[in-house]
């Protein structure tokens, strides 16, 4: 029960990303500052944690082994993903961006063939390309149907131009996130914990955030105090607190595949918290009955997807599933 509550708490803090990004865009803030400031603020917070755990040297040694792969996959998983999310927030409501981004659970399954697993064969240890887990994707249709209904409901309120600019970048971000993060996990091979890897990816993307910040200063000046404060809140609440809570929850549940699936499913709560928060904080927010039905289908689909996937994985292995960091 403790792991479930921690997972729900994590989804609550994760929702601040979508709400505050939309709020900053609605008040005229630049998406470039929204993206850059989050990671510039996250950097010292993560650095303190890793240094206090005396794991910083091990991280630097690991990054020196494959510096360009660290830069590239960090750009994909952090830079491309979050920049596109912030850009999309200028064209779509927070609940729509949050709901559409849940396609990432489907993207993660579709990207599986890009990765390998180690198997023992008669010829020795070999790398085998993974296959798409078809049996575990039954609920993907429910998620896609929900996203389709949300997009259709939104199309009746905004132009096709704005709908596409809010939707397409979010879908690309939903694929970039699992691709970049899983490639980094594959590269590290379990030698780093979640905090080390997150800090390493943040360090690897610092040149991107500094270049974007420099451009924004020259072209449009410094961010407002309000946007700086809101970006700091996103960094602390979503980038730090939510991550700590979620990984703590998965650590508590990692020895039980069914409990782990329930914890993973709690992340769908961020969609609900985002909708409630946006309705309370951002004036003019509205959602039609069709959009609400779509949102509910996304949440239901995510929960069922996690639970069904746990059964499929348990059936294919006698070993407990270990949650990747």
From TrEMBL:
<keyword id="KW-1133">Transmembrane helix</keyword>
<feature type="transmembrane region" description="Helical">
    <location>
        <begin position="287"/>
        <end position="308"/>
    </location>
</feature>
<feature type="transmembrane region" description="Helical">
    <location>
        <begin position="229"/>
        <end position="248"/>
    </location>
</feature>
<feature type="transmembrane region" description="Helical">
    <location>
        <begin position="260"/>
        <end position="281"/>
    </location>
</feature>
<feature type="transmembrane region" description="Helical">
    <location>
        <begin position="136"/>
        <end position="152"/>
    </location>
</feature>
<dbReference type="InterPro" id="IPR032713">
    <property type="entry name" value="EmrE"/>
</dbReference>
<protein>
    <submittedName>
        <fullName>Multidrug resistance efflux transporter family protein</fullName>
    </submittedName>
</protein>
<dbReference type="Pfam" id="PF13536">
    <property type="entry name" value="EmrE"/>
</dbReference>
<keyword id="KW-0812">Transmembrane</keyword>
<feature type="transmembrane region" description="Helical">
    <location>
        <begin position="94"/>
        <end position="115"/>
    </location>
</feature>
<feature type="transmembrane region" description="Helical">
    <location>
        <begin position="198"/>
        <end position="217"/>
    </location>
</feature>
<feature type="transmembrane region" description="Helical">
    <location>
        <begin position="158"/>
        <end position="177"/>
    </location>
</feature>
<keyword id="KW-0472">Membrane</keyword>
<feature type="transmembrane region" description="Helical">
    <location>
        <begin position="36"/>
        <end position="56"/>
    </location>
</feature>
<feature type="transmembrane region" description="Helical">
    <location>
        <begin position="68"/>
        <end position="88"/>
    </location>
</feature>
């Amino acid at each position: 029960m403790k792991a479930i509550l921690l997972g729900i708490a994590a989804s609550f803090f994760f929702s601040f990303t979508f709400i505050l990004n939309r709020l900053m865009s609605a008040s005229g803030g630049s998406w470039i500052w929204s993206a850059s400031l989050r990671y510039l603020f996250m950097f010292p917070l993560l650095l303190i944690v890793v240094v206090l755990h005396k794991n910083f040297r091990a991280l630097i040694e690991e990054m020196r082994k494959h510096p360009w792969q660290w830069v590239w996959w960090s750009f994909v998983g952090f830079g491309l993903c979050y920049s596109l999310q912030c850009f999309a927030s200028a064209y779509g409501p927070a609940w729509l961006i949050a709901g559409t981004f849940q396609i990432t659970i489907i993207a993660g399954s579709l990207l599986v063939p890009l990765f390998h697993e180690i198997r023992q064969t008669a010829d020795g240890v070999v790398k085998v390309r993974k296959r798409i887990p078809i049996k575990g994707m039954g609920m993907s249709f429910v998620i896609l149907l929900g996203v389709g209904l949300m997009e259709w409901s939104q199309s009746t309120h905004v132009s096709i131009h704005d709908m596409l600019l809010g939707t397409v970048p979010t879908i690309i971000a939903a694929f970039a996130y699992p691709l970049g993060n899983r490639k980094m996990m594959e590269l590290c091979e379990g030698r780093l914990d979640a905090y080390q890897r997150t800090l390493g990816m943040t360090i690897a993307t610092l040149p991107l955030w500094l270049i974007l910040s420099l451009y924004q200063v020259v072209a449009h000046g410094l961010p407002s105090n309000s946007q700086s404060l809101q970006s700091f809140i996103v960094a602390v609440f979503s980038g730090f607190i939510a991550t700590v809570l979620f990984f703590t929850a998965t650590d508590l549940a990692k020895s039980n595949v069914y409990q782990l699936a329930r914890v993973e499913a709690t992340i769908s709560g961020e969609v609900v918290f985002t909708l409630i928060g946006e309705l309370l904080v951002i004036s003019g927010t509205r959602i039609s009955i069709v959009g609400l039905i779509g949102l509910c289908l996304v949440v239901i689909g995510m929960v069922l997807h996690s639970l069904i996937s746990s059964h499929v994985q348990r059936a294919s292995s006698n070993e407990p599933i270990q949650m990747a960091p």
